[in-house]
User: Fold this.
Amino acid sequence: MSDERTKPKSGSAHTELSRAWDLLEAGDLQGARQAARATLEHDAESPEAFNTLGYILALEGDLEEALAHYEQALANDEGYFEAYLNAADVKLRLGDVEGALEAAEQALEAAETDDDAVEALLLQMDVLLAAGRVDEADALVGELPDGPFESPALELAVGRARWEAGDQEGAAELIEHAAGVLQGDPDAQYQLGLLREAGGDLRAATAAFLTARALEGKLPRPVWAEPATRFERRVGDALRRLPAEVQATIEGALVLVEELPGAEIVAEGFDPRSPVLADTVELGKGQTLTRVVVYQRNFERLVADPAMVDSALESLLGEELGRAFES
Assistant:
């Protein structure tokens, strides 16, 4: 969940809580936690402090403890919109789809502004899609307004929702405008690339995808992210756990770990957000090379729960290799 929805409102936040968010934005999770806990020393029931601590714990991957803090925030303020959103997000990441949907519906009931309502609807759609209830999610698209929106990030999210529901015409204007404002946002530029690609403008699509790739490389890594050498070992272990018939397709393969796809292959049409490249290339003189490249940053984007890294990696590699080398 974006910290724009989580941080305290201007003029109402305790000094320590405001400092906690300043520290969070600077990447100092330990300092932010201390500042949030200092707020509880002044107000032991502060829902904002519990919500902030929950957000920090979620960033660190401690989802169960994060949820407990969000629930405490809601126990202290049953109309706390942001805490409902955050609780729904964590429940979804924990696999509790029904609980996430209930929290998202409660967020909609607690919404005080049109933008609040839109964000709650978008979260409901995410939960329904995760549950495979595509028709129900698509039905909610019709309830989304056309704007204008207070936040360009929200405008982009609505555009993406319309896009994913198949309403490219309804999505185009929203995505175009949001991407123009959010020029430093990789999500906005990636969505713009998809829009350009669908419209047949491959040159503009490639430019947008390359921009998204470059911006992605500047983002901070998740706090649980590992050094490349350790991640390489995880990849090797995951490959060895795959079924024998899948392992046979990559016998003798070159296996690499990179941060992101190279600019060259993105320019050739490779998706800059794909987590895996698996193929066989001709070397000449009848020789071939099978290669498997795992893009660590793109994989990290897909992981909802850091405790599930190994199983997620094994599942991803099994699917990607099966697709690439199916006979």
